[in-house]
Amino acid sequence: MSFGFLTAQDNLSEETKSFVIHEKGYYVLQNLTILDGTGDSAKYNQDVIINGDKIESVGADLKVPFGALAINMEGKSAIPGLVMLHEHLFYPKTTPDKKYGVDQMTYSFPKLYLAGGVTTMRTAGSIMPQADVNIKNAILRGELPGPKMDVTSPHLDREGTGLVELGPFDSTEQAVKMVNFYADIGVTSFKVYNFITRDDLKAICDAAHARGMKVTGHLCSITYKEAADLGIDNLEHGFFASSDFIANKEPDVCEPFKQSKSLLNLPVDSNNMTDLIKHLVEKNVALTSTINVFEPYTKREVVPGGGLIALFPKAKEKVYKRWASKQGRDSLDYELFNKSKIWEKAYYDAGGLLVAGTDPTYDGRIVAGYANMRLVELFVEMGFNISEAIKICTLNGAKYLDQEKAIGTIENSKIADIVILNEDISKNINAIRSAEIVFKNGIGYSSKKLFKAAEGIVGIR
Predict the structure, then answer these.
(1) Does residue 187 contact residue 133 with C-beta atoms inside 8 Å?
(2) Where is the Amidohydrolase-related domain (predicted)?
(3) Of residues 161, 171, 251, 156, the one with CA closest to residue 208
(4) Does 159 have pLDDT greater than 70?
(5) Which residues are within 8 A (CB) of 5 and not within 5 positions of it... i.e. 6 or more apart?
(6) Residue 57, strand partner residues
């Protein structure tokens, strides 16, 4: 699969240049602590040579090549650019009739993702696919700062979703036409949703695969096991969207209340869950953790990752009121949150490809960039060591995108996507919040300037 992002920008707009610390060039980043994304333990006192948009060499006490600029990074650490697979360029709003709706964040979110260390992302569902394609291409041309993007189709679904920005299909044949339509306008992957049938999913997978593209799903009407057998490539939200454990489940019917209750009632060490995990691994179905979406409210940050400052005042007020109202009243959320952490790690430990994404929807707490940093922290809370947490958020995402030969690790000949942190992440995962420079395609962007540019405007543009 190719998204056309393997060439660095040569001509940056004045706006993009305003966020650049290091233009594309020849650099030796010296004396770094590196977690390289492979899952190996940290390497200390390391140098990284960047030549253009590629990593030329990594090692200790490297000779500075003629013409290269040596930059002392002592006391700092480095990780690969994050590869996040459930992101959006939209943010929730409240419509006049109180229905759930979303607005496009064309200006703020690309900057925030890059500021938070995300150098590659999949949108995992678009409300304005043509806008997302245009943003992707503008970033590629250097007109806007932001990550490289795999643009996913809108949520392909039948009637019932209730999201006013989405248009449902009413037949399997129409679903296939939508696959080809969106592929023709430039999307590079597909997402299915809550109310589709098994026939719909099989036809969508066949049509997408025929064009060399993958299908992910936030399911309800179809069980995970059914979806795996029908050819789906990826399942979203860990096991939160699994309807496999509903007793006497009616085929092709979404019953959200029964779904949630079945997971709450399922023992954490259930053999049925173990069997499902084994089946998914055997079918090579990737699992996207969006565990941050389900992070409880009590004694947790209002905006996980510290992004309250990014919200415009009315959005900030709305998010804070909901957070305050939930303090001490989310025991069931905690129960399912803790179960899900165990199940997702069990899937990883069984050999499954666990990938990561933040899904900035729901109640407005999930803000691009900030949420990505928080998600890395949560993987350590789930029981992963720091090297594993970084690998899930970098190399594993690259593997799913079939780009692991180009991105996802700090290694010779890889594209120079590197996040420079002011603190030592090998000792403390919270150092993920100390991003200073985000190299994307060999160009070093100021994380602080990017965050600053989006202050107070999330929820507006």
Answers:
(1) yes
(2) 79-431
(3) 156
(4) yes
(5) 120, 140, 148, 149, 441
(6) 49
Is the separation of the CB atoms in 117 and 81 below 8 Å?
yes
Q: Using DSSP bridges, classify how beta strands 43-51 and 26-34 pair: parallel, antiparallel or unpaired.
A: antiparallel
Instruction: Write out the H or E segment, with its range, that includes residue 156.
Output: strand 152-156
Query: Which residue's structure tokens are 């480095």?
Result: 78
- Which residue's structure tokens are 């043509």? 130
Residue 163 has pLDDT above 90, yes or no: no
Q: Is the pLDDT of residue 166 over 90?
A: no
On whether the CB atoms of residues 103 and 459 are closer than 8 A, the answer is yes
Closest alpha carbon to 432 in 382, 355, 379, 377:
377
Can you give the pLDDT at residue 164? 79
Neighbours of 314 (CB within 10 A): 12
Candidates 359, 310, 286, 417; CA nearest to 123 is 359
Contact call for residues 86 and 122 (beta carbons, < 8 A): yes
Question: What is the value of pTM for the model shown?
Answer: 0.97
Q: What is the DSSP letter of 382?
A: T
What is the Cα–Cα distance from 230 to 62, expressed in whole angstroms?
Answer: 51
Burial classification of residue 197, based on how many CB atoms lie within 10 Å of its CB (0-12 exposed, 13-18 middle, 19 or more buried): middle
Question: How, if at all, do strands 234-236 and 214-217 pair?
Answer: parallel
77, 436 contact by CB (below 8 A): no
What is the percentage of the chain residues whose pLDDT exceeds 90? 93
* Distance, CA of 51 to CA of 57 (rounded, Å): 9
CA distance 78 to 411: 12
Query: Please, are residues 422 and 436 in contact by the beta-carbon 8 Å criterion?
Result: yes
- Position of tokens 């395609």? 441
Instruction: Write phi, then psi, for 46 (nearest 5 degrees).
Output: -100, 150
The pLDDT value given to residue 53? 98
pLDDT at 13: 97
- CA–CA separation, 23 vs 248, rounded Å? 60
pLDDT tens by residue, 2-56: 455 544 456 999 999 999 999 999 999 999 999 999 999 999 999 999 999 999 9
Using the 8-state DSSP alphabet, how is residue 141 labeled?
T
Enumerate domains of the chain plus CATH numbers: 14-81+410-453 (2.30.40.10), 82-400 (3.20.20.140)
Query: Which phi-psi region, left, alpha or beta, contains residue 39 (left: φ > 0; alpha: ψ -120 to 50)?
Result: left
Flag whether pLDDT at 165 surpasses 90.
no
Per the listing, tokens 């806008």 go with 131
CB 379 within 8 A of CB 391: no
In this structure, what token pair is assigned to residue 336? 């399912």
Q: State the amino acid at position 284 in one-letter form.
A: N
